[in-house]
Structures are given as structure tokens and as C-alpha cells.
Amino acid sequence: MPASGATFPAAVALQNLLADRYSSPVTVVDRELLEPWAVARVRLRGTAAPRSVVVKWIRTGRDRNRTAAWRLRTELAALQFLSEDVEVGLTPRVIAADTAARFLVLEDLAPRIALDHLLRRDGAAAHGEGLAAFARARGELSAATAGRAPLYYARRARLGPVDPAADTAGRLAPLRDTAIRHAAELGAPLDGRAEHELTAVLDELHHPGPFLALSNGDSEANNILLHPCRPADARLIDFEYAGYTHALTDAVCLYVPGPAWMTVGEPTATGLADHYRHALVRGIPEAEDDRRYGHGLAAACTSWALIRLQRFAVLDTRSPGDPSRPQLIATLEAAARTAAIHNALPHLTTWTHRIAALLRRRWPDADQDFTDPARFPPYRARS
């Protein structure tokens, strides 16, 4: 049964919506909750309806982050934009929607499975094709949507208020200020040339120019589904936080660990960097400029590392051996390494390494060699 606060839409409302969609009776046979999300696979009976669909709804309860109705409107607008306006073929189709009742009915993408599940189960070495598909899909999404922001926002505005500037800045952007305060408390205040480079980072991210493209807002491996027999047949999901932002923020997941991982490997050596960039260039030719591309990528990775650093105060209270501590250090060092490889942001890179070194001394249990593939293979789960 659904958990408290994750109430499944009334079967009669779903049946009536689908009956109207297919102009014939539809019966809900059963449902399979895909916990912990407010998502279910629903099996149907009807002459015109598919055998199954995926229903996604907005929870009820006091958690404003999980119950905000704008998330459903954003997902609806993004998926319709991608399938009807852009026709990119990377996402599930919207079958029906009831924004008043706060649920969507989506194409069932089974038997596709989330890449992060495969990586956790088998390790990265077993899923090179899937990782390549992941990298290409991120680049393809940006390439297909670059230059089309007005069309998306016209569609999104019809469903309710939206702030394009907030989308570009990113919903987590305010967390950077907290991170800078934490760095100062650790003994690494931001000043001088590093501060000047951070200003350049923010200018790059807030004014992407030709790199402005649609992102789903969470470009991690749990939000791409792969077909078990055709790994290249990938679909991106979860567009609740979609919006136009700097395209290279969607490449960060290839270089810097996200919340789930200790390490992600070296994308240049594995070829994932090329898969992503070649796909991106087809819609954003400016990505061929090494200097411009490197600066943008370094800016996006550094910004993400700072966003993760805002967790310092919480992690500092945890017991030695907690995996979130080494993960934070690995994140900072991966961002600095990416900037150094692309000859970008040298003073911010030095500052980031200094923060990581201070954390290593503060947390001796987290003082480990994250470049050792024997101990930290690509996509090693945090826990």
C-alpha cells in the first residue's frame, strides 16, 4: 500500500481520464508502487488503451519541496515540449494529465531499467555501452533544445507562473554562499584572484549564451533508463525540475561524483567525454572551441563542488567512517582535477585543493586515495 503522504490518485479519476483519452472504457486492473517515489506502474484493461502506463503524482503533506504543484506542471510542459515541439525521442510520452488532481499518465518504458541500478549491481566495467548511451543522451538533449527557450517557456507559462532567470541560475545556487562561509571557517577564506575567478564562474553560468539548453535538473544515472537488449536505446526521466540552464551543468555528472557515488572515473580515458561532446556539438557548435568548452565545464564542476560543500556542517557531526565524508573530499578533488585538465580557473583550483586538504586533516578517516581504481573503481556507490 502507498506510504503516508504518497496517496495514489483515485482509480475512478484515472479511469475516467483515460476513457476520455481513448474514447472507450478503461479499467484499472492493478498497480505496482515504485517506491520511494510517488510513481506507480498501472495495468489496464481496455480495447484502445495500452496494457500498462506509469502514473506520477504530487504527494500531499507538509514537505513543501515534495508537495509543490509547480513540479508536476514543469514536468508536463517539459515532456510535451520534447515530444511534440522538439521531437527528440529521449523521453517518455505524456498520455494524459490532470493538473487539478495533480497527476500525470506517462508511457510505460518497461523493460528499460535505471542505469544506476545496473552500476550498483554489476559495476561500471560491465556497462560501458550503457554509460556511453548516458553520456550521449545528455549531449543530445542539450543539442536538440539549444536556442528554443522561448518555445518552451511559452508552453510552460500556459500552465502557471515560471521564472526563467531562476531556472538559469539553478535551484541549488544559493547553497554556494553557505559553502564559502564553511571554507572560511575551515581556514581557507575566498579572496584575491580566486574570488575574481568565482565571479567569472557565476557570470558564465548565469549568462550561458549559445550553451543555454533544457536540462531535467537532475542529470544523474538514476534518471536514465536503458533497454536490457539494446543499451543504446535510452530514455531520460524525471523532469520535475526542468528548465533552461547552462548545458555543461549536465556534463558534471560524468566528471564529479553526484550524491550516490564516491567516484565516477575519468571520462576522458573511458571515452565518455567524447561521446558527450560529439553529441553536444551537433546542436551547439561553440562546444568545439576548447577554451570556451573547458572554461564552461570547469565552471559547472566547481559550482557543483561548492554546492556539495555546503553539507560540511552536517558531515562534521557524523561518526568517523561515515562514507559521506570521503565523498565530499572526492567531489572537491574531482572538480579541481577537471578544471586543471582543461587549463581553467587555476586560482579556484588551488583554493579547492586547499579545502580538500583541510578536510583530510580534520577527518583522518577520510584521508584516502580516490584515484586508486582498486579501492575506488568508477561508480563506486557511497553506501
From TrEMBL:
Note the InterPro entries from the entry. Answer: Kinase-like_dom_sf
Which SUPFAM superfamilies does the protein's record reference?
Answer: Protein kinase-like (PK-like)
Q: Which domain of life is it from?
A: Bacteria
Protein's recorded name: Phosphotransferase
Native source organism of the sequence: Kitasatospora aburaviensis
